[in-house]
Amino acid sequence: MPPETLPTIPPEITSLLERVAHALERIAPPESTPLDFTVADAFVWHPNGRRLAPVPRVNRVEMTLLRGIDRVRDILLENTTRFADGLPANNALLWGARGMGKSSLVKAAHETVNSSREDRTALKLIEIHREDIDSLPDLMTILRQDPHRFIIFCDDLSFDADDTSYKSLKAVLEGGIEGRPHNVIFYATSNRRHLLPRDMMENERSTAINPGEAVEEKVSLSDRFGLWLGFHRCSQDEYLAMVFGYLAHWGLDTDPEGTRAEALEWATTRGSRSGRTAWQFVQDYAGRAGRALT
């Protein structure tokens, strides 16, 4: 068709097309930038844009301050050390009582292993939020070709009755066609040993044609973790050891008998003894003493 016979687009159509083009540009995902894993030893995964945000300073507790969990501490540290050395190691599920140092132990083990090496940032810690579990395959694809070794860490992992993303996690951990990358290990913490609520499993048992198989599918998620490390409520002596360990670490002078009574009263008013309760007491104690915990 000769140029002089081309139809003219009405101005209102042109304006509409321009608005559509601008709207598409706004909702398009941002261009991904090359990942530089040398800038930090810890990152947070953001699935929107497939972005790993570096964490300049990780909020963690020193390994020596974690009391009452000696056995699980040694097991996880050994497993992490083997993984950092390129040897076979297992995914780990840290489950049990609240406030007993599950997430603190993961972060402390990462720091302890790195600090013993010439390259103090060789082992990377990547936190993935519970609601982003479905994006694990994308994260694995990014990490698979990188020379570093990675701990993917999910804190407070559990699934509700209507949640089916646990099936994605099962496939990524062991069952996918590609398998778990050799340079990636998965650590998770949970208050539940099987990651699923009891009523969800009982409902599956009561409504399934074959109740045993239905429950087996739910339980098999936990089986993907080679290490099950249980954390249990601490005794009074262990709780007090945590309190005085924190106080000594921060150089806080105490009246032992008076502080003991205060610490026990603090735990009683909160209805639990745990590492978290001990740390909260120490924060209150330092605040009343006018001391900053820096």
Proportion in β-strands: 5-15%
What is the overall shape? globular
Spatial sequence of strands, sheet with the most strands: 2-1-4-5-6-3-7
The largest pleated sheet is described as: 7 strands, mixed
Cα distance, first to last residue? 77 Å
Kindly state the mean pLDDT as a whole number? 83
Helix content: 40-55%
| Computed CA radius of gyration, to the nearest angstrom | 25 Å
SS summary, helix count: 10
Low-confidence stretches: 204-214
The helix/strand class is alpha/beta
- The secondary-structure element order is HEEHEHEHEHEHHEHHH
DSSP strand count: 7
Q: Give me the oligomer status.
A: single chain
Q: Would you write up a description of this structure?
A:
The structure is a single chain. By secondary structure, the protein is of the alpha/beta class. Helices cover 45% and strands 13% of the residues. It has 10 helices and 7 strands. The protein has helices at 11-27, 70-84, 102-115, 136-144, 166-175, 198-207, 211-223, 236-249, 256-270, 275-288; strands spanning 42-46, 51-54, 92-96, 123-127, 149-154, 184-190, 227-231. The protein has a 7-stranded mixed sheet. β1 and β2 form a beta hairpin. α2 packs across α3, α6 packs antiparallel against α7 (211-223) and α8 (236-249) crosses α10 (275-288). The longest helix is centred in the N-terminal third of the chain and has 17 residues, at 11-27. It is globular, with a radius of gyration of 25 Å. It starts with 10 loop residues before the first helix and ends in a 6-residue tail after the last helix. Residues 204-214 have low confidence and may be disordered.
